[in-house]
Amino acid sequence: MNVLLFLGLPLLTALAVLLSRSKQQVRVIALIGSLLQIVLALLLLFAFRAERAGNNTAQFLFEQQYPLIQSLNIHFHFGVDGISVSMILLTALVVVAGVLVSWNVEKMTKEFYFLLLLLALGAYGFFISLNLFILFFFLEISVIPKYLLIGIWGSGKKEYCANKLVLMLMFGSALILVGMLGLYFIGGHEFDLVNLSQIIIEPARQTILFPLLFVGFGVFTALFPLHTWVPDGHSSAPTAGSMFLAGISMKLGGYGCLRVAIYLLPEGAKQYADIIILLSSIAILYGAFVTMMQRDLKYINAYSSISHVGFSLLAMGMLTQTAITGALMQMISHGLMTALFFAVIGMIYDRTHTRMVDEMGGLMKVMPFITTVLFIVGLCSLGLPGLSGFVAEMTVFVGSWQNDDLFHRIATIAAAMSIVVTAVYILRAVTRTAMGPITNSDFAELKDAHWNEKWAAIILLAGIISIGIAPGWLNDLLAPGAEIISNRIAGK
Amino acid sequence: MNELLLLMKSELVITVIIFGLLFIKVGKGMSNDRLLPIIQLSLLANLIIGFFFNTEGNLFGDMFYTSPLIAFEKNILNLGVYLIALLNTDWLKKTANLAEFFLLMLSALLGMFCLISSGNLLIFYLALELATIPIAALANFDLDKKSSSEGAMKMILSSAFSSGILLFGISLIYGVTGTISFNELPLLADGSTLYTLAFIFLFSAFAFKLSIVPFHFWTADVYEGSPIAVTSFLSVISKGAIAFILLTVLYKVFLPLQQVWYLLLMILAAATMLVGNLFAMRQQNMKRFLAFSSIAQVGFILVGVSNGTEMGISSVIYFVLIYLFSNLAAFGVIAVISENTHKENINDYKGLYQTNPFLSWILALALFSLAGVPPTAGFFGKLFLLTAGGAKANFGFMIFATLNMIVSLYYYLRVTRAIFMDKNEKPIATIKTSAPVKLAMIICAAGIVLVGLMGWIFDYIQTLH
């Protein structure tokens, strides 16, 4: 299987979108392109499992290398392991759902889909890159599309939010850039992830480099206290933009924290683990309590994202294999869940033209499909067994509990308690929106989901439920990768 | 004779064009509509010739030196002049003194070529003057605009002042070492305070030409007052040429003083980036805005220069190439809009995307490249400068430089926000761009998108050493 297809396909689709003539043509091309991406992602999954079943134990499969700049020793180096495969699956699901829910975008349709596909391209490229330079390049490709998507198609204080998001993310990138160059010089002019992982870097150097890289990627995944772009950015983005931001872009950061910062600098990770745990525990509790005070559905989801992503950062700080697997599961589960949540909020807003919980009520009676999905996704968010959220959070807690000193125990208990708060705000928001009498007479005439919205929801729900009911396959994908990382931390 | 023809090829071709223009002017003259294509074609021919027969060698007893690397630098400048001639077609067609305009511009270019090739402080000084004085005349080319004359006046006065300091420095150097040859100077340098002082005088002349803080005060007024063709020439070609010779002078002539200039460059780079960025934030006029942003870009160039090895040379040349595409594209769009509507204010650009999507995309690409956002080439350019500057693993300085990139992104975003997001009751009307302008813009856009991804270009520069 050639992983370069994941770059070629979105690029071709984006170019085809640019050349197409009518809005309908644009939509159909984007849909076909994104469906092909799912097919590709599934093919990759099967090919990967077949290779592993055939006892191919190489760390990365389907590797390819091409020189980019020889005099600086920069190569295109692509390849995937189980972690990347599952991230690619997540991306493909969110992309197709995003394309479907944006079916009714009338303003500059061509540009909108072009930018969406560019974002997808950046995410795929990021997940398959095994060279720090290329990885960083793909991370940054998505900056311009994010900015324009929020600024042009967004709502509310969109220009301010677009600016804030881009500047904060660029701040993260700046830290990553410096850390990356530091690794380059310390590693003897080497950007390659695989080669760098074989070089032993002195602990003193790791002390300097680790915070640069971890905080840099952390900005992308809402590391407390650099999370402030999340509520603004998510709430003012268009529906598909929020889905991509929360579903994919935040995962780039988490993946980078793990793959680059913790994997390459295990000594640094040990030194800073307690700080990571402290910050993420604060993020979990703070995010949950702030969410309780929100009245706007998008803000509710944005703040709860901070809390949920905190679980995955907390697990990274725990440094055990189970915890790291849990962190990755939480990333994937949260990606699907939050994308679906934003999709549903977008559907509701398109009909009611409000996102305020207090102004809604009884929506179950007029749009049963949409509100049912809202219920399911809410239950997933608070960790109901049978859905992906439960599996991920359970793994995180089990992994965290393996550290048996007081500090780790307290952090784990505090994080677990936040689930109660989550239940409070989720149930309150969902019941107020869906149950009771129809408070606003204008809402009585509203239509339920269209075909495109139904399919978008079904595709994401399929992901959530298949992880929730049968988590084994995901665990098989993630655990070997997590084991390599935890072994490096343990010094094996 | 053959050797002379071969080694001074670039200079001779430019001289031939200059004389051709003179004959046309002195003779019957020609209408602008006929003359301009001829000039553009001869500049294209000049550009193409530049790629052939490049060898290494000295002339006139080490006064003139050329090598494939220097020839490549000259090609970059040729490309820039050709693009400027294309991008400003609309304005050039209307100007009353087309032949004089190119006479002056090409004379300055000839000066820059000699400057890059100089092997001796005397030629260096003469070439620098030749490269400066015609530009002052060019800055005054909008004869009916008061600000144009004011800009020219400011430029000629301050450049005369800096020439004085430069000459003082040169005389001190001669006094200490007894030579002005680039080849002999590093051998005779004695590290005395006087020699260091002489170096600092010499360096301040560079600082003036590159508008390094605190020698930058002339820049904004001159940029604003001059016609846009001249502004783009000043900000790209002139800066590029001076950066190239700065590399030669620091790396070859003043190598014994590396300790001194490394520290000097660090401080000046930090100050230049910071001041350029802070002032650029407050500008409303697009030309002033780009003037300050180009000051900040020069600060970045200094980061690469501080490296002191071949990597430093390659990264600076590579960056100048990318900077040329990006800045010329930005100035090109501003020129088209200013020529058709006389609007140069950022607020006038609001809603530009609704009426002029092509121009908007070009300008946005150029600005993103200047800001160093991937996938544009500007990202690669800045990254290699940082890689060169980071060779000494100065983390604090690196973080400072990258933070400055974010500040610069903030003000570049101001413009893109105006273009794409802000609403405007009366946006600039749809402008029909002529074919040469479009061609040049597409060349620039292709450069911005492709140069970064084509890694062999950087490898090629590395092999030229």
Describe this structure in words.
Chain A contains 20 helices and two strands. Chain A is mainly α and 492 residues long. Chain A has one domain (5-490). In chain A, strands 1-2 form a two-stranded antiparallel ribbon. In chain A, α1 (5-19) runs antiparallel to α4, α2 runs parallel beside α4 (109-128) and α14 crosses α20. Chain A is globular, with a radius of gyration of 21 Å. The mean pLDDT of chain A is 87. With 465 residues, chain B is mostly helical. Chain B has one domain (2-463). Chain B is 77% helix and 1% strand. Chain B has 21 helices and two strands. Chain B has helices spanning 2-7, 9-26, 32-49, 68-87, 89-94, 98-117, 121-139, 146-177, 185-188, 193-209, 217-225, 228-253, 258-281, 286-305, 310-341, 352-355, 357-371, 377-389, 395-420, 435-453, 456-463, and strands at residues 57-59, 64-66. In chain B, β1 (57-59) and β2 (64-66) form a beta hairpin. Chain B starts with a helix and ends with a helix. The chains are: A mainly alpha (492), B mainly alpha (465). Chains A and B meet through β1, α5, α6 and α7 of A and α18, α19 and α21 of B.
Residue fraction in strands of chain A: under 5%
Structural class of chain A: mainly alpha
List the secondary-structure elements of chain B in sequence, H or E: HHHEEHHHHHHHHHHHHHHHHHH
User: What is the number of helices of chain B?
Assistant: 21
Write down the Rg of chain A. Answer: 21 Å
Number of helices of chain A: 20
What Rg of chain B is obtained from the alpha carbons, in whole angstroms?
A: 21 Å
Number of domains of chain A: 1
Give a quick account of the main beta sheet of chain A: strands, pairing sense, barrel closure. 2 strands, antiparallel
Strand content of chain B: under 5%
Number of strands of chain A: 2
Percent helix among the residues of chain A? over 70%
Look at the helices and sheets of chain B and give the structural class.
mainly alpha
Instruction: Please provide the ordered H/E string of secondary-structure elements of chain A.
Output: HHEEHHHHHHHHHHHHHHHHHH
Major sheet of chain B: order of its strands? 1-2
